Automatic annotation (TrEMBL), chain A:
It comes from Xanthobacter tagetidis. This is ABC transporter permease subunit. One of its GO terms (biological process) is transmembrane transport. The chain crosses the membrane at residues 59-85, 97-119, 125-148, 169-196, 216-235. Belongs to the binding-protein-dependent transport system permease family. GO terms for cellular component: plasma membrane. InterPro entries: MetI-like, MetI-like_sf. Signal peptide: none annotated. It holds the Pfam family BPD_transp_1. It is a multi-pass membrane protein. Keywords: Cell membrane, Membrane, Transmembrane, Transmembrane helix, Transport. Its main location: membrane. It is found in: Cell membrane.
Amino acid sequence: MTQRASYLAVQIAILAAILTGWEIASRSGAVNAMLLPPFSEVATQMGRMLVSARFLENLGVTALEVVLASAIVAPIGVLIGLVLAESPYLGAAYRPFFFFLTGVPKSIFLPIFILIFGIGISQKVAFGVFQAVFVLVIATMTAASSVAPELVRLAKVSGATRWQIYREIYWPAMLPIVIEGMRLGVIFNITGVIFAEMSVSRAGIGALVAEWGRNFEIANLIGGILITALLCIAINESLRWYELRVGKWRQ
Amino acid sequence: MAAVANAPAPAPAGPPDVAVEHLTHVYETANGAVKALDDIDFEVPQGKFVGIVGPSGCGKSSLLLMLAGLLQPSEGRIVVREHALTAPRPADVGVVFQEASLLPWKTALENVEFPLKLRGTARAERRDRALELLELVGLADFRDRLPHELSGGMRQRVSIARGFSQDPKILLMDEPFAALDEQTRLTLGDELLKIWTRHQKTVIFVTHSLTEAVYLCDEVLVMSHRPGRIIDRVTIPLERPRTYEMMATETFGHLRERIWRSIRTT
């Protein structure tokens, strides 16, 4: 516990040092204050943004797109993963495509999504789903193959029905890995949505940040980036907390 | 020595709990068919403690999987309590595996409860029964621990308690103490005998420890190297309850030696 506290102290000190260094560098003229305004100025701007209707509306659009994409991708990804893991024929036939596509940068497909879905919310959601689905399918396949055959055997001799084997063995054994896949999926999903917004869009945090960049509104730009980053960290960490909680037994 | 070993077994009371009839098992590999078991034939009377020993690769484990209903033999059949065995029958046959096989996300208590939960026993009742068994194996204080927080010996105790919680008529044990050190092995063997005396089950116990086989069993079946055949059946006339002192007796030594000789000549 004391060790953990001391790590935390070091981490806070590092963060404070970076922010102080940033402040000093900018105020002393060591870096161009036009490109990097002092931290205090950015922080003030962030405070203003958090109560600005325009910023919150755009943030809301992005959040809606991410939530919709997650709600679509979670069942689809898990289902495809389960089918590919459990059906020997479908698995052997289709698995390679998923592995190959995982290695291809999804961003290159964006123009196709624009042609099919236009530039509204549906395009962002579709692109978010496309970005996230592969990692979730692969995590689910990994999870299914990680289920120890001894435990399935044990359940059988203990009198488990097929349904009980799924509920009592497969579900708890797979859950931590599937949640991990979902966590990575959400990261890819957000990446996809924001990338799509930055390319062509009328709304969303990505569109807003891109606009600030083009207009050289540096304090807004950096503030927007920091707020988005903090939100993503919060989402990622809470999913990781859940992942560790359901996977406590994995040591 | 031979005179002692050939002492007749007491006549069984009713039909045997387990009858293995001319069991042969052949499995396919990349290099062709391999005969794992060859014409295995034996009976286990109700309430007896029967051991199976043999060199590694004699097909003991395949035989056990078949007795559990998890593997179908190529030829012959197994009759358990007068019905041919074609699938796992948890009410009749329970299994304690070599690697404790505890569900890692369940506590010791929940693991012992597991078979009862599967058959829909009420929560309070299964809890009471599981606690009683955990107490019997000396782990009542560890009921809320997860398997990775227990030692190897403790895990195997939980696994034994789980085998009994299912309350099968017949308990199959596949080298349950193989991964444990000598002292834990002896202690657990004694505890197993105590529970067995109290719950009167038919036990089929696979082991590669000859001492363990003689110490625990009423009869020991000796298997040959692949293809596994039964090459000797040794009745253990030592009285019960068994005590550590018996291990030092001449009879014990002779029995052990006879089994060893049978194995060596294969």
